[in-house]
Amino acid sequence: MSEIVEEKSDSSHRNKAQGVTISPTQQMISSGTGALMTSFLMTPMDVVKIRLQAQAKPAAFSKGHCFLYCNGLMDHLCTCVNGLSPSSQWYKRPSQFKGTFDAMLKIARYEGITSLWSGLPPTLVMAIPATVIYFTAYEQLKAFFSDIDLISRTAQPMVAGSLARVWAATCISPIEMVRTKVQSQQLTYTQVLQAVQGMVRANGVLSLWRGLGPTLLRDVPFSAVYWSSYESMKSHVLRTSGRSNLHFHEAFTAGAVGGTLAAFCTLPFDVIKTRRQIDIGEIELIGNRKETTATWKLIHKIYKTEGLNALFTGLFPRLVKVAPSCAIMISSYEFFKRFFAVQNEGGGESSAIPSHSFHSPSFRVEKGFSPSGSSPGDQESHIPIIAFMSQTQSTDTQSVSHGDTDRKTPGS
After folding, report:
1. DSSP 3-state of 69
2. CB 160 within 8 A of CB 166
3. What's the rounded Cα separation, in Å, for the pair 138 and 158?
4. Are 116 and 48 in contact (CB under 8 A)?
5. How far is the C-alpha of 140 from the C-alpha of 300, rounded, in Å?
6. Which of these CATH numbers, 3.30.700, 1.50.40, 3.90.1070, 3.20.20, describes 21-42+121-347?
7. pTM: predicted TM-score of the whole model, two decimal places
C-alpha cells in the first residue's frame, strides 16, 4: 500500500512539475481567443497594405495572378478573379491613397469601417483551427519532453515548437487547397468534393499537400527560433523576479522580441516561400503556366539573377507585421492561461495548482524539490518548474490520522 501511495504522489508531482496548469480544452480556448484578438487587430493593416500595392501595381492584381493575404497569424493564397464575386474583388476597389494612415481613414470614411476587415471571415476558418492546434500541441509536447527528460531543457522549446508547427501545417494544408479552389473557381460544395476526388485520382493523395514544403521551409525554423528565444526570456524574468507568471506587458515584450528575432533569421526562407507559393497557385489554381517551382532551383535562380540581397528584401514590412502579431498572440494566450488556472483554483478542480505552490527556483531548491532526473544540488533548469506540494501534504495528514507514522511520501 505504501508503494502505491508513493507512486501516485510522485506521478502527481511530475505532472504538475511540467507546468501544465490547465486542461487541453482550456489551452485550446486560450489560443483560440488569442487568435481572434490577433486577427481583428492585425487584419486592417494587411488590408491597407494590399490596397496600396494594388494601387501601385494594378497589373499584379489582374486575372491570372495570385497574392498573399495575412491576418496576422497565417499567410493565405488569394487569386485575382476580376470581379467574379463581390467577396473576392475588395482589393480592386477604386481609390487613391497617399499612405498607410490616409488609406485607413479613407477606407473607413467612404467604404465603411467594416471594409478594414475585408477578407477576414474565410481566413478565420483556417487561422483559428491552425493556431489552436499549434499552441496546444506545443504545450503538450513541451510537457511530454519535460517528463521523459530525453533532451536538454534548453532545447525542449525548440523541438516542441518545430514539431507543433509541422503538425499544424500538415493538418491545415488540405483545407487551404480546398479553400483556395472555392475562392478561385466559385465552386459549390458538391463541385469541390468532385474536384478533390479528381485531383486525388489523377495525382494521388499527396496532391492535397502540394505547397506544404515551402510553408514548412519558413515556419519550422521560425517556430524553433521564436519559442527558444521567448522561453529563454520568460525563464530569465521569472527566475530573477521569483514569480511564477509573467505580467501582461512582460509577455507582450518577450513575444515581440522573439518574433523580431525569428522574422529576421528566417527572412530568406520567407522570400522563397512567398514566391514559390504564388507560383504554385498560379500554375495549379489558375492555369497560368510558369517555370519550375522546385525550391532549390528557385533559390539558385534568385541568387544568380538578383544577388544575395534579394533573399533579404522586405525586412521592415515583415518585422512590422510579425512583431506585433507575435506579441498580441502570446500575451493574450498567457493571460487566458493564467485566468483559467485561477478559475480552476477557485473552483476546487483537480487540475488546479494552489497559490501557495508557486515558488521561486531558490525556494524549491531549499525545500528539496528539483526537476525530474536531477537532485537538489544540480544546476537549476532554465525553464521554470512549478513545485507541487498539496498531494504530499494531504497524504501525510491521512497517514498521521491513521496512526501510521512510518510511511512517508516523496517531498515530505
Report:
1. strand
2. no
3. 10
4. yes
5. 38
6. 1.50.40
7. 0.71
